[in-house]
Sequence to fold (982 residues):
Amino acid sequence: MAKELTPRSENYSQWYNDLVVKADLAETSAVRGCMVIKPYGYAIWEKMQRALDDMFKETGHVNAYFPLLIPKSFLSREAEHVEGFAKECAVVTHHRLMNDPNGKGVVVDPEARLEEELIIRPTSETIIWNTYKNWISSYRDLPILCNQWANVMRWEMRTRLFLRTAEFLWQEGHTAHATREEAEEEAQKMLRVYADFAEKWMAVPVIKGVKSANERFAGALDTYTIEALMQDGKALQSGTSHFLGQNFAKAFDVQFVNKENKLEYVWATSWGVSTRLMGALIMSHSDDNGLVLPPKLAPIQVVIVPIYKKEEELAAISEKALQLVADLKALGISVKFDDNDQKKPGWKFAEYELKGVPVRVAMGPRDLEKGEAEIARRDTLTKEQMPFEGLAQRIKLLLDEIQDNIYRKALTFRDSMITCVDSYDEFKRVLIEKGGFVSAHWDGTTETEEKIKEETKATIRCIPFGNQPEEGTCIYSGKPSHQRVLFAISY
Amino acid sequence: MAKELTPRSENYSQWYNDLVVKADLAETSAVRGCMVIKPYGYAIWEKMQRALDDMFKETGHVNAYFPLLIPKSFLSREAEHVEGFAKECAVVTHHRLMNDPNGKGVVVDPEARLEEELIIRPTSETIIWNTYKNWISSYRDLPILCNQWANVMRWEMRTRLFLRTAEFLWQEGHTAHATREEAEEEAQKMLRVYADFAEKWMAVPVIKGVKSANERFAGALDTYTIEALMQDGKALQSGTSHFLGQNFAKAFDVQFVNKENKLEYVWATSWGVSTRLMGALIMSHSDDNGLVLPPKLAPIQVVIVPIYKKEEELAAISEKALQLVADLKALGISVKFDDNDQKKPGWKFAEYELKGVPVRVAMGPRDLEKGEAEIARRDTLTKEQMPFEGLAQRIKLLLDEIQDNIYRKALTFRDSMITCVDSYDEFKRVLIEKGGFVSAHWDGTTETEEKIKEETKATIRCIPFGNQPEEGTCIYSGKPSHQRVLFAISY
Fold:
């Protein structure tokens, strides 16, 4: 088969790249670190967008659009933010090209230098808070609950399709509030929305928690995160929500008159998920045969493949197949009847397995005689004969079962990969031999965190919400600790 | 009233700007020529996007995403394209900032100069055809029917909100075909989709036609256009579709093996509409009181305003109002019940007129007694008492009637503004005294076209589809002409 993937056991990283390219999800482009998202990959992203956007709107948010370019000086207004974000970014210095006076092509027109350089947004807190300044004067103007779907750019040195690219697509919510409590609740609420989306739509179980100071977003007082576990035992940060305190309001002088008629700085949050979720989706469920997609995000939920030798066989099968197509569509299920006669059924089976279509229906003359069809599940790779009678309804239930099964499988794996350890030796051994999340006592200092990272590559993924207090000693420093935190090697 | 608009008769251009800002559609940003699209404006754009996207998908297109940045050298591959597009654009020259060694803030790191400059896409033909090269080898790979929703940037000198901004949002379709005929049909089909959208959703009548050579897209063999007429008698090009021939395939060496097993260059189209449509929508229908939105694109289709003095009156009205809200929602109608007690009904009436909400329902104690409500139409500014019984259904019909009425009104105006002239004096007089489209004989040369533009500012908007052949003489040169073309002064 032309589209064979490197097996996961041989080289997980190569398997991932093979899969992304061969399943037509994305590919590298002529521009360093930037990807082309191909139609099949984009169709999955669109389904994610639609579901997330509905969830944002249900929680009272509206969409808006802010400029792609940010004046350089904005970035240095918030001191921590510039350290974390403003360095590796695309800088626009000129606004015109001219014909090369020495020959072919075009060159930058030296006369068209900008007075102040502009940066392609790596994230939009600065330009948005500069805008909010004009929108807010009284508590009556609050809260502002805006979201933006946009492209952003960070000049990453090592890039991987979907997981880390120079340009990526994302949404960024930016909210403004009259009180600290309201902003904190908003940041946590949006993290819950992300967790719900990951679990109910992507079928990816996640751990909700708060980041250590060291792993916080540049400019935030608290960063909340959802952490997922990939099949190779590495963690993947899948969405973050930040309580920004009054930092950006102070940097951009955004004050409001509160109910007591006093001037006060506005409280802020921001939160985002990106096309990185595509990486999480792919790596959570897929296998050596290709993608495994949860039915709720699959662009094609059911494919029907006719098995025939003679034209009249195809005609008879088509009649049954088109009836099934109509029945499935009436139930809101996306379905493709692949009667392309240039390709053999075996080729099609492999192709739709690669593409992760959740349910495959095969129909041959003998099935027709018996009044049934062969139904194959992508998640378990099992096959079953089912009668035509009530087939669409049965497939609908099957899709729900697959969605559920994919989630439970990922959850069982994830839960089996959380290991409690009480010594640094055990910690290191688990990281090497097993991987996954390691739950361990930590003394709460950035110093210890960085030492552990240096020696093992593991970082604190989060301090889980609802963590039980537990007295213990830090696995690294031996100092007292009051709770366990989750470490892992991550993407 | 704080939000008064400059009357159209006094200063149409100022009226437009006032309206865009005061109705919370968009505002200028800190970045020259770039706008912030505010939530209310964006909600209209989202409705446009959704409707267009559905139409693209119904005609077999899929979405994808290509890089924001384009290598400078790509732009000069297609000779005409670079002349038309590559000059006024944002140029990325560096990929890193550093702390200013002399003090505060950040500066561009001179070490981080890019080997080849990158351009923020002004349009994506070049990067997309460079990608298609890898997707196409046989006629079996064709057609490719891709669309992209994206931001683009053109460094315009004079900008106006929505109509001409440095950054704007748009969709760009890029298709690849095995035959000339198929590509030409595709370009025309998409123009028909645009015209349908303009007329059925935006309620904006448009004239479909082909551009003269002079007004063609840089790199196209033919550019098709839909042209709308604004209330001030100026034309607005609202969407274009280009038959690109084999120009980009040749520039990027994209060949395929055809059914006769011979290598051939691929045939191409591209087509786009942008946030400029927001300008067309606003200027087609709105009046001195504010926006007039066609119901199909109105974020809020119906607003209910309670008229009361005492709390118990509000309670009684609310009961009725919430029932109406539920009934309208059940019919798929978006509705807002504005019971905010900080604002007087008069303020609310003016505000929702400004925002273009198509139907306003007012309910006071006396209406309740009589079992009716006051229904006001935004398009005609008329009011009518209607019984509660069957009110939601009546409003649904009213919304259809308003959609229809807005379109007919614009159509009647547009048709009254097409004037046939047979001399250059008459041509000039009509342009000055009346405006609108002027239908006149033209000798078919670019020279004449440019002279007329120089002397009158009028350009050939299009040669309408289905134009009747008619013998005559060019109004400017007196040379023979075989058909009339449409001139206008345009945005």
The longest helix of chain A spans residues 391-416. Residues 353 and 381 of chain A are 9 Å apart (CA to CA). The first strand of chain A starts at residue 26 and ends at 28. Chain A has a mean pLDDT of 96.
